Amino acid sequence: MQLHGSLTSPYTRKVRVVLAEKSIPCDFVIADAMAADSPVPALNPLGKVPVLTRDDGSTLFDSPVIAEYIDGMAMPSLIPPAGDLRWSVRRWEALADGIMDAVVARLLESRRPAAQQAPEYVARQEAKVARSLAFAGAALGDGNFLVADQFSLADIALAVALEYIDFRYPHDWRGRHPRLSEWLALTVTRPSLVATQPPR
């Protein structure tokens, strides 16, 4: 298998963490989806990373689909097969992906010429992040894991999202959500998350 993605994409990182947790070999090809000579549009018509090329040559995209595919390749499972636990993990993943979407949107807007930037659009993205952090902080229990006292895709997705905030939208969210900060500090010590840190 071959994974195309970037070192700074949080969506790519999420998949790389799943691969590491599963100890599944996969060639990682660093690719800039925006580059004129990028191979990504030929693999994913949406022109987005990550893209997984399977051994039969077919491709899968985007990160929720790839993560579930990889999860089915080896045990233990990071996504419960059915029932409330599955939907809880999926909801955490959706929340984390939404945080990343908002941070990416804010970042792209900030890179536009100053005269063309829309402050109200930036404020909307920041409000999404603030609400999501408040939700996560309130929903976080006393344990080390988000769902059923077991490490899952929920933990991977949220940890990646929180560290992406630090990477692209640094602000003192830890002061407002100390329990969430404590949870993250413990979670990111896992080798899979240490090994996939974006370049600073």
Q: What is the oligomeric state here?
A: single chain
CATH topology name of the largest domain, in short, is Glutathione S-transferase Yfyf (Class Pi), Chain A, domain 2
Task: Classify the helix fraction into a percent range.
Answer: 40-55%
Which term fits the overall shape?
globular
Distance between the termini: 28 Å
- Poorly predicted runs: none
Q: Count of helical segments? A: 9
Could you characterize what this model shows?
This protein is of the alpha+beta class and 200 residues long. It folds into 2 domains: 70 residues, 3-Layer(aba) Sandwich (Glutaredoxin), CATH 3.40.30; 108 residues, Glutathione S-transferase Yfyf (Class Pi), Chain A, domain 2. It is 55% helix and 6% strand. It is built from 9 helices and 4 strands; from the N terminus they run βαβαββααααααα. Strands 2-1-3-4 form a 4-stranded mixed β-sheet. A hairpin with a 5-residue loop joins β3 and β4. α1 runs parallel beside α3. The longest helix is centred in the middle third of the chain and has 28 residues. The relative contact order is 0.14. The mean pLDDT is 97.
